[in-house]
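U., I forgot to send this yesterday:
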Amino acid sequence: MFKKVLIANRGEIALRVHRACKELGVATVAVHSTADANALHVRLADESVCIGPPAPKDSYLNIPAIISAAEITGADAIHPGYGFLSENARFCEIVKAHNITFIGPDPTHIRTMGDKIAAKEAAGGAGIPLVPGSKGSLASYEEGRRWAEEIGFPVLVKAAAGGGGRGMKVAKTPDALQEAMSTAKAEAKAAFGDDAVYLEKYLERPRHIEIQIIADSFGNVVQLGERDCSLQRRHQKVLEEALSPALMPHERAEIGEIARSAIARLGYLGVGTIEFLYENGRFYFIEMNTRLQVEHPITEQVTRIDLVREQIRVAAGMPLSFKQEDIVFRGHSIECRINAENPKTFRPSPGEISYFHAPGGPGVRFDSAIYSGYRIPPYYDSMVGKLIVFADDREFCIRRLRRCLKEMQLTGVETTIPLFLDLLEQPDFLNGDYHIHWLEEWLAADAL
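Result:
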């Protein structure tokens, strides 16, 4: 096992990794920007190193500063969390070149899955079903139109690099395709430095289903069931459930085995998530995330598996502490991403938290690094915490979630708590009858 892990991240995920390390008897190093000097993960870590000013490019994306911090403190491993450098293959290579273990997959897998076109080719070759689409990036509008006519409108223009909904445009007619391609290419160039785009069939009412997997270096690969992440705004997940209310047991078993077999075939190491669109009983590969997911806690709740602990153990060369036949799904879990935003306009609301009280009781978990008096900086993502609840069934889980949202006290900044309280009253949500466009359609109708 490692002696000391440097956590190359901030906020709730940095604290989550710190806790897992301490329970494994491993010392921790927190890195932080000047804006995060008073952050909770910095206060709790065994050591801390300031790596730059507030802007992410000067701190949490500053590879030389992070490597220097690891060398100065004698860290023998680096955990990247999610976001920032977690899916940066070059960072992984540099970490390894300095004889430090990167707690994540091999850089080859990170690089392949980070390119959506290469990822589709790898997934298809491993037996994963794909959304009908173009083969490779598009050289011209004429090529795009030929593919669109073969696939059938509507189509989705997607950036080959990056994610988060940037560089994605829908074209419902041939006339709209040229503008969609032009806009998507411009967005992709600005966001990722790469204007390559490709086409996929646009599914009208799919759900977003993702399968959690983990693999060790001894050939053991385990799938830990699915999460339903269909409630999204601008391609950003807002609320997630495990297990999905839409899947039948045989569908769950089938897609889980497809994902597990594919990962085994790829020779993958560590945690990863394969994301699908699901419509009319069929699954279509979207992408693979080669890191820990924000929504990993709901999988932990229904499987009783500590994913971060297992991730660290696997990176240290240890075998998984369980086999596929040991995995039993119990109950239901839901996660709400609590953001410091106006619940109507979604404008970020940085500032000082004057008072904070987390909800409690059986089946309640709040992953966060905030506290009374903490000042939310304006430089980073607006998520301040994840409220995770677990219960024996979905109906009970929703009632528990409603109780917790009302119990939570967070003053001084605006939050999205009122949005979730309203959402939990909607019949479509209560019936589990929603899709990836449902939330935006409901928000638009509510704004009228």
